[in-house]
Amino acid sequence: MRLLIIGGTRFLGRALVDEARAAGHEVTLFNRGRSNPALYPDVEQLHGDRDGELDVLAGRRWDAVIDTCGYVPRVVRAAADFLAGAVEHYTFISSLSVYAEPLAANTDESGPLATTPDETVEEITGETYGPLKALCERAAMEGMGGRALLVRSGLIVGPHDGSDRFNYWPARVARGGEVLAPESPDYGVQFIDVRDLARWTLRATEQRLVGPYNVTGPERPLPLGRLLDTIRDVTGSDARFTWVNGAFLVTHEVGPFVEMPLWVPDDFGGFNSFSIDRALAAGLAFRPAVETVRDTLAWLATRPADHVWRAGLSAEREAELLRQWHATQAAVN
Question: Is 54 inside any structural domain?
């Protein structure tokens, strides 16, 4: 398959390139040439800004395109319109954030989508991200005349994840000692290894699947206690977990999902319980969590010691929260 990847040198993009090359596909990358420009010296790369510089793609044909970095509907529509006659199929990497809140448990692809009163807005914020992704989906579908796969991905984790929204846990548990953990050991979480997402996306593109698919994992939400125990086993640390309820975290203004990775308050509804039955029926499969943990830790060991973390509690903030939690429990008892 002749495959055009918009992006291709960061996180999911590079996982897609690696998977596609392993499968024997002919890959072309279209990006600005700014992120990891030396990563794939033997892969054809066409450079330009997708916002206004699509002409570098003129006169070429591919079997399919995978768009990893579309956030603005106008820009996605321009790409879909431009490529409609040059590719047979368009895969758009979307997000589970497209769904309207509050989320019902087990939300599937028929769930209501987030909206914005001003569909011309292009500033990406916490409030506009989901609605803009939903509008990008519509733009891809319309531009391609329905020949588009919409990959509604969940939290993507694994090597080369610059968000740190999962990395925090392997790194924190490895340090050992008392670890603040949210809710209870049975608290269910969802995430997907970037390599599993890339593999499924590529296979779905090969099969010319169309329409929306929720793509996260595992098959059923994973108890957080099991994940943290797995990390402790892998690292051999002396970590011991203090489970702190959500009400305490909300009262103390602990930021969900970023400051406290994988956790969201109750008013987020079914955030960690999306239905992925459609993707499972289409072949979605997962590697063991222990493999993701090991490979993430190995990659984290390559980062500089002065890396500035983008997610997770600071050591000082965690220690103060634990002190306050224990004081609260002592007062109750």
Answer: yes
